[in-house]
Amino acid sequence: MSNVIIRKAQLGDAEILAELSRQLGYPSTVAEVLERLEAILSQLDHHVLIAEIHGQVVGWVHIFTAYRVESSPFAEIGGLVVDQNFRGKGIGLELVIQSKQWASDQGLGQIRVRSNVMREAAHRFYQRIGFEQSKTSIVFSMQI
């Protein structure tokens, strides 16, 4: 989409990031998103990009370097969302393209993304733009 501007996220974006996160199914207050964004933006191996159309924020992506003992570092998309009113217009693709560039600039040779099994539309999107399913996992959590 030619009129999309991709830029780095700023702390002032917290409110719209919270709204878009709700659309993704992760309700958070503006204060919670602001606190998280402050921590993320202070890390050199994390990057948050914003998509804007005519000054309106319509999407975001968070990409970071993931380190594992058993494998080489890789880039991982921690979250990607496009406003429900702007989906299907190439905005998600542009965010991924910019994420790939960031990962390449970091010397990383692979990008991974995790997607809930229920998000079939997201799976089709990732496959359509060149991602391949590499494994199926179950996520376990424990409150501490």
Can you walk through the features of this model?
Helix 1 crosses helix 2. A hairpin with a 7-residue loop joins strand 3 (56-66) and strand 4. 33% of the residues lie in helices and 25% in strands. The chain contains four helices and five strands. The chain has a five-stranded mixed beta sheet. It has one domain: Gcn5-related N-acetyltransferase (GNAT) (Aminopeptidase, 3-Layer(aba) Sandwich). Residues 4-144 form the N-acetyltransferase domain. It comes from Aquirhabdus parva. This is GNAT family N-acetyltransferase.
Structure summary:
With 144 residues, the chain is α+β, with helices and mostly antiparallel strands.
Explain the layout of strands and helices.
Blueprint: E1 4-8, H1 14-24, H2 30-41, E2 46-53, E3 56-66, E4 74-82, H3 91-105, E5 111-113, H4 120-128
Helix pairs in contact: 1-2
Give the mean pLDDT: 95
Q: Write down how many β-strands occur, each being a DSSP E stretch of 2 or more residues.
A: 5
Low-confidence stretches: none
**Helix count, DSSP H or I runs of 4 or more residues:** 4
- Helix percentage: 25-40%
CATH superfamily membership, which one?
A: Gcn5-related N-acetyltransferase (GNAT)
Percentage of residues in DSSP E strands:
25-35%
H/E series: EHHEEEHEH
The tally of structural domains comes to 1
> What form results from the Cα inertia axes?
globular
Measured distance between first and last alpha carbons: 44 Å
CATH topology: Aminopeptidase
Keywords:
alpha+beta; 5-stranded mixed beta sheet; Aminopeptidase; 33% helix; 25% strand; single chain; 5 strands; 144 residues
